[in-house]
Write a structure and sequence with these properties.
This protein is mainly alpha-helical and about 220 residues long. The protein is globular, with a radius of gyration of 19 Å. The chain contains 10 helices and no strands. The N and C termini lie far apart (about 60 Å).
């Protein structure tokens, strides 16, 4: 098998083109899904209808999103946050690094177009208001836990399975979730769902409390 360094420029460009095409297809499926959910409701919308609207086959839908719930849940934010976290200066503590990374991600949220922001609000509202999506989110939370544990362990020179790392990541995700969730899980209005700078400020405030030892 050839290494990446052995790939020709044309092949590297083709790899990049394929990834961009995949990203466009994934975004198209998600956008059409959210439009149909708004128009018809989540339960009344089928995968076949989403696939038809996005002009892909149902099998293509499932290559990008393993379940109907995943079309709401899946995004790039965990990956972007971890990349930002890993890029923080080594002299920062883990909490300082994640707070700085959150602000970096907030800058990206601030650059969303009105259409993109509307889609994110709709996704966020569905994640907390539809029981099936909330249930599927537990699996996604467990996946995110170990992604964060790997990154934190790498930063402090430990193992993801080490109890201090597990406890830290549990506290970290817990306070972030506390800042994110609405008071009620039912009837969440997407237009009242706050994203962008307000969300970043809430999460940063929660992380500041964690850094201070969670005083009450």
């Amino acid at each position: 098998m050839r290494s990446m360094t052995a790939l020709g420029r044309a092949e590297v460009a083709e790899l990049g083109l394929r990834e961009r095409k995949k990203a466009r297809t994934r975004t198209s499926i998600q956008q059409h899904a959210m439009r149909l959910f708004r128009e018809q409701g989540y339960d009344a919308t089928t995968v076949e209808e989403i696939a038809a609207a996005a002009e892909v086959s149902p099998s293509t839908f499932f290559r990008y999103f393993p379940t109907k719930e995943d079309v709401v849940i899946r995004d790039d934010y965990d990956r972007l946050l971890i990349e930002a976290f890993r890029g923080q200066p080594s002299e920062l503590s883990p909490i300082q690094a994640i707070r700085s990374a959150i602000h970096d991600l907030g800058t990206s949220l601030g650059q969303l177009t009105p259409e993109e922001l509307s889609l994110e609000r709709d996704r966020a509202a569905l994640q907390v208001s539809v029981p099936e999506i909330r249930a599927r989110s537990i699996d996604e939370f467990l996946r995110a836990f170990w992604v964060f544990a790997d990154a934190v362990a790498e930063r402090v020179g430990s193992r993801p399975e080490a109890m201090p790392v597990r406890a830290f990541v549990g506290a970290l995700l817990g306070v972030m979730l506390g800042a994110y969730l609405p008071r009620t899980m039912d009837g969440v209005d997407a237009q009242d769902w706050h994203l962008g700078p307000d969300l970043v400020q809430r999460i940063d405030g929660a992380l500041a409390l964690l850094e201070a030892g969670l005083p009450l």
